[in-house]
Design a protein that fits this description.
α1 links the parallel β1 and β2. This protein starts with a strand and ends in an 8-residue tail after the last helix. It has a domain of 235 residues: 3-Layer(aba) Sandwich (Rossmann fold), CATH 3.40.50.720. It contains 11 helices and 14 strands. It has a 7-stranded parallel β-sheet with strand order 3-2-1-4-5-7-11, with helices on both faces. The protein has a 3-stranded mixed β-sheet with strand order 8-10-12. Bound molecules: nicotinamide-adenine-dinucleotide. Nicotinamide-adenine-dinucleotide (NAD) binds next to β2, α3, β5 and β8. This is Nucleoside-diphosphate-sugar epimerase. It comes from Picrophilus torridus (strain ATCC 700027 / DSM 9790 / JCM 10055 / NBRC 100828 / KAW 2/3).
C-alpha cells in the first residue's frame, strides 16, 4: 500500500515506519520536527520524508495514498496545556484537515492515534460505550477529532480511531515524559525511583512495539473497523504505579531507593480492551518487564538524557520557533481545507 504517516518521526513513528517499510509498503512521512535533533533517514531507507506542517502543507501532499496513519500532535497533557490554541490548531483542526483531504484525494483508509485519556479519571473499567470525560486540552482535542473524523467513515473511506493506553518502551526518539520510561531511566542513572504519591493510582499501559503492531493491523485490515473508536491495550497492563515502581526497583537491584513526590494522587482509571480483540483481532505481546529490561539495556549501552526526550521542552522550542519555521518552509499561516 501507499501509506502516509503524519508525525512519523516521533516516538511511535520511529518504531512504526521501519516496520511498515519492512512489510513492503511505500511510506511517506510528513513531520515538521525531524532533523532538529536527529536524522531518521538511515532507518527510513526507501521512505519519502517531507518536512512540513499538517496545518498548512499543500493539499497535493495528500494525493496518491491508499491509507493514512495520523500521528502528528502535541502529544501529551502538559504539552497540550503549554499553548491551548496551538493544541487545538494541530491536534484538532490539523488532523481534521488531514482526514478530509485524504478522503477527498482518494485514500481508502484512515487511522488516527487517539488516547484512553478521553475517559478521564473514574472508578471501574471504561469501555468504548463509557461517556468520555476529557480533563485536559489534549484529551478534549482527541474527543473532538474522533467525532469529526469518524463521521467521515463510509463505504469509500474507512476511518478508525485507536485509543491507546499510555505508552512505554524504547524507541530512537525516546520520551522521558512517559511514566515508565522516566522511572526506569532515572532509576538507572540516579539509583532512585521517583514515584508520585502514593502509587495507588491505576493507569492503562502498552508497549510502543504493540502500538506499532496495532496501527499496522488497523491499516492493513480488510474488516469493518471504521466509524468507531477502539481501545488498544491489555487489562493485564491496567497497573498501579506502586507495582510498576516495585518491578523497576527489583530489576535495578538492591541499592535502588524509592522517593515519593507530589501530593497524594488517587485519580485512577482502568480500561477494557475487548473491542481490540474482537474487531481488530489484536492482542498485546509485550509486558511491562520487557519494556523495563529493554530501557535498562539501552542505559547500559549509553542511552543519554537528550533534549528531544523532554517532550514539553521540545514542543516549547517548536512553538517558539513557529515564526522562523513558517519562514523556513515558506508557509502562509492559514489553514487550507
Ligand atoms: N505516547 C503515548 O503514550 C501516546 C498514547 C496515546 C496516544 N498517543 C498519540 O500518538 C501520536 C504519536 O505519539 P508519539 O508518542 O509518537 O508523540 P511524539 O511527540 O513523539 O510524535 C509526534 C510527532 O508529530 C510531529 N508534529 C507535531 N506537530 C506537527 C505538525 N503541526 N505538523 C507535522 N508534524 C507535527 C512532531 O514533530 C513529532 O515528531 C500522538 O497523536 C499522540 O497523542 C501517544
Amino acid at each position: 500500500m501507499n501509506i502516509l504517516v503524519t508525525g512519523g518521526t516521533g516516538y511511535i513513528g520511529r518504531i512504526l515506519v521501519p516496520e511498515l517499510i519492512g512489510r513492503g509498503h511505500n511510506v511517506t512521512v510528513i513531520d515538521r520536527g525531524f532533523l532538529d535533533y536527529d536524522d531518521p533517514t538511515k532507518d527510513y531507507e526507501g521512505a519519502h520524508l517531507i518536512r512540513d506542517d499538517i496545518r498548512t502543507c499543500d493539499p497535493s501532499r495528500l494525493r496518491g495514498f491508499d491509507g493514512v496513519i495520523d500521528l502528528a500532535a502535541l502529544s501529551n497533557d502538559p504539552s497540550g496545556d503549554l499553548d491551548k490554541t496551538a493544541t487545538w490548531d494541530i491536534n484538532y483542526i490539523g488532523r481534521v484537515r488531514i482526514a478530509r483531504l485524504a478522503k477527498k484525494l482518494g485514500a481508502k483508509r484512515y487511522v488516527v492515534a487517539s488516547s484512553c485519556s478521553v475517559y478521564g479519571f473514574r472508578d471501574g473499567l471504561s469501555d468504548e460505550s463509557t461517556p468520555t470525560n476529557p480533563l485536559t486540552t489534549y484529551a478534549e482535542a482527541n474527543v473532538a477529532v474522533e467525532r469529526d473524523n469518524l463521521s467521515l467513515n463510509d463505504s469509500s473511506f474507512r476511518a478508525t480511531a485507536l485509543r491507546f493506553a499510555t505508552v512505554f518502551g524504547y524507541s530512537k526518539r525516546f520520551r522521558l515524559d512517559l511514566v515508565v520510561n522516566a522511572m526506569t531511566f532515572y532509576g538507572y542513572k540516579n539509583r532512585v525511583v521517583r514515584m508520585m504519591r502514593d502509587g495507588n493510582q491505576y493507569r492503562p499501559f502498552i508497549h510502543v512495539k504493540d502500538v506499532s503492531r496495532a496501527l499496522i493491523q488497523a491499516i492493513e485490515s480488510n474488516d469493518d473497523i471504521g466509524g468507531r473508536p477502539i481501545n488498544v491495550g491489555n487489562e493485564r497492563l491496567n497497573m498501579q504505579i506502586k507495582d510498576i515502581a516495585t518491578i523497576i526497583m527489583h530489576k535495578l537491584g538492591k541499592d535502588t531507593k524509592l522517593e515519593l513526590y507530589g501530593d497524594p494522587d488517587n485519580r485512577s482509571y482502568q480500561v477494557k480492551f475487548d473491542a481490540a480483540r474482537d474487531l481488530l483481532k489484536f492482542e498485546t505481546k509485550f509486558d511491562l518487564e520487557y519494556g523495563v529490561d529493554e530501557i535498562i539495556d539501552k542505559c547500559k549501552e549509553g542511552l543519554d538524557d537528550l533534549p528531544q526526550m523532554h517532550t514539553v521542552n521540545y514542543y516549547k522550542t517548536l512553538l517558539n520557533a513557529e515564526d522562523s519555521i513558517a519562514k523556513y518552509l515558506n508557509l502562509k499561516p492559514k489553514i487550507i481545507f
